[in-house]
Write a structure and sequence with these properties.
Blueprint (H helix, E strand, L loop, with lengths): L1 H16 L2 E5 L4 E5 L4 H10 L8 H15 L9 H12 L3 E6 L2 E6 H5 L12 E6 L2 E6 L3 H12 L10 H18 L1 E9 L7 E7 L5 H9 L3 H19 L3 E4 L2 E4 L11
Length: about 270
Amino acid sequence: MSSYNNILKELDKVNETCESQIFIPSLQQDTTVKPINIKKQKDIIKSSIDPSATSITFNLCINRIIRECTGNKDILVSDKPAVIIAMRRENIGTTYKGDIDGVTVDVNLPDIIDKYQSFENTLVYKKKVTSGNITINLTIPTLSVDDKFMLACSHVVKSPKVGDMKQVSDNIGEMFVFEVAKFINSIQYKTTTAEISGDTQVNSVRFDDLQAVQCIKLVEMLPVSVTHDIVKYISSCREYEEKFTAITVDGKELNLPLDASIFTLE
């Protein structure tokens, strides 16, 4: 038993000391990252089997692993593509081989990662959307905020039966609302305190102070004109994220997959 315990201690030391550096776009600097062990890789593979077909299980899993390996609670969802690819390079290998949209690819990951620091940071980290007396303060969520809403969403979406397109569309609708909610930092609203004086009071509700289900109720009450502007903001963030996965093969623009397959051996 002592030999067993000694081996566990030595393996733990390996995980603590075999560190590397990866670039975090939002911080514009490198951060230390610990290696992914077999237990974490097993969790990633298991998370790829998601009956709801929403990828929520995988994203919850990879968010946890990123936090555990980096020890950084400030990493944003917009950082995930760059972080995932860098962690893949450090733990699996410098080459990614696979099939993307019917195209066989053989990608040298360091060539992609070397470009990260040269990307122009066009991302808007905070934005305000106003409609009448209501102002919605938007911000790119951290992985922890992402988890809050994905976990709540996982209790709402259901596993569709084969051919059950209604359930699929229901899941998409639920995921849309949760996606909008995670990008909202707070909602401010103005009220008139007295009809005679006309004094205006500004009140604010922070989503960090609310449960996910409470946030969803607020989001569902927002006018479509406001959600349209929020969706435009989210889309701009997603477009920025795609810069980190973009590759060109035989003149065709492709994106590296950000699912469990990126952490498997060639």
